[in-house]
Amino acid sequence: MPLTNAMQMIAENRLLSRWSDLLERRPDQQNHPQETDAELVPLPDGKNLLCTTVDTIAEEIALGFYRYPETIGWMGATVSLSDLAAVGSQPLGLVVSVTLPQDADPSFQEGVARGLDAACRAAGTFVLGGDTNFGQAASITSCALGLVPADRLLRRTGCQPGQLVYASGRLGAGSAAAARAIMDIPEKLYSESDFRPRARIEEAQHLSGFAKACMDTSDGLVATLDQLMRLNQVGFEITAGLMDALEPRSRRLCRQLGVPPLLLLAGHHGEFELVFTVAKEDRDRFERQARSRGFTPLLLGRTIADPVIRIAGDPPRQIDSARIRNLADEAGGDLTRYLMELTQIVTGT
Amino acid sequence: MPLTNAMQMIAENRLLSRWSDLLERRPDQQNHPQETDAELVPLPDGKNLLCTTVDTIAEEIALGFYRYPETIGWMGATVSLSDLAAVGSQPLGLVVSVTLPQDADPSFQEGVARGLDAACRAAGTFVLGGDTNFGQAASITSCALGLVPADRLLRRTGCQPGQLVYASGRLGAGSAAAARAIMDIPEKLYSESDFRPRARIEEAQHLSGFAKACMDTSDGLVATLDQLMRLNQVGFEITAGLMDALEPRSRRLCRQLGVPPLLLLAGHHGEFELVFTVAKEDRDRFERQARSRGFTPLLLGRTIADPVIRIAGDPPRQIDSARIRNLADEAGGDLTRYLMELTQIVTGT
After folding, report:
1. Which CATH number fits domain A35-150: 3.30.1330.10, 2.80.10.50, 2.40.128.110, 3.20.20.70?
2. Which of B168, B145, B18 is nearest to B90 (CA)?
């Protein structure tokens, strides 16, 4: 897949593209760069693909988003398990490399382990092993491993205009958790342990045969739609009510802060839901089957030919998603500036 | 495998044992903690095991052992590929998470990529994907993935008294590289790029059917023998000449510094050779077969019933390997103290 000009507009894509230019690729790797949330290698059985992905959490800890070791462990497992979910994979397990703060007492390690274990249980999997280091600041890197039958694989590519776009659940919890840290919100309004997103492993199993493109919202809804837009050269029209798209605690926080719901959908600290498209003619069958399995996907809107992200209304409103995505890079670690500029973009001021 | 008192004497084993106590284990995982260099999970084909391992390199960079981005990339790939070698696995690829220094120019990323690519080529494998972060200091975490047929698996356990112990090649290069940094040795005597250890993937393929226990020397020869001693409740008698066991550049450095060769075999910065035992009756067949494939293993000595590490001689000399292994923890990052105390231990002063 050549990196289009549209892809190159995003700083993160340029960075990844440089690695791809520099590193030789395994000839039978089953995904091009950016095309899937996890890397895919064929296995000798001729049926399954090995899925793998690696993610480091360091900045979120340094910024104070994750102060509890339990959160570090939970998120350490969830970030990579969520990538497995987005390709439709069932996890085999994960390996983790944990950097413990030099001055931490043993309860820190115990907390990280509790969080890791709880997130693995929620996804029906296990930590297989790992590596421990000591450093100035805590960080965690996890590598999740899983299998997917080649004919059940979900990719980021494959959507076309005229399809429906869904999220696997209501959104905004990632931004609410970030807001808690940035704005120093009282615990009773939103507490750090309110943010325990589950990797949507099981839900992803219900998408096979329906989803035409799938990606997790690890960087928030707007970044996810933006990337799907650039990869597929389609746009998105959001017809769902934005306040209604927020999960209840995030919605309550949104109201109490008096900020527009789009702010919580545009923030880069995502909630690890899956965003995917479904053909219109499959809608009834998909929704019925999902409901029968206790899974209620949220209809966000539809794909459109124009490569933009638009909120339906009179008049409709276009979101400058490239500016939103590049904001995190431009603001560096200056969260106040980030929040101010993001607010300006989403309110159009 | 219960953690014996002998295992608990080593700080690193205690740390790993705490994780094992805290985390639920996958019921069909094919290795107990510490029993293999990589984690093992059965695959649906009923024949192959998936092998995986994760390692972070941060301290070596902070200590100045790896100043060139090429070294960081090379070592980032090699540490985890070497663990695959030690279980007899053929690699499928690796995923890497790289933290680039915030202030580094693009040539840093290019250097890391060149090193990663070169180490992968040397092992016949590829980087499948990864994650990039920016931080105060560079670090790299790699997770290697591979396959091994269950009947060709190499474990750390299974050796008994009366066997021969080998290394896959001459030793000391890791310590020489560390000495270069600690003692600020001129480039012409030992340069950073002299240290490019190769993961012994191919050599490990020749061990199947012969090796009774196998482990890589990622923490140096003495730590490796010590761990094999504790896991197997056997001891080791080194009969090889210690100077002869050093690889040529390390030997030259050893002579020029006027330090005992044991210092280079006892240092914690290993050289990523494999140490393994072979039954005496298999010696001729093993050595002949190895040579016919261009592989010349180094005979180090033999396993003994007494759980100690002993250097043959008149009188024989016992090495306090527990003290050596725990020294890295006790000295923290104080390299001068580390080197002084290690010298005292190996010279018996």
Report:
1. 3.30.1330.10
2. B145
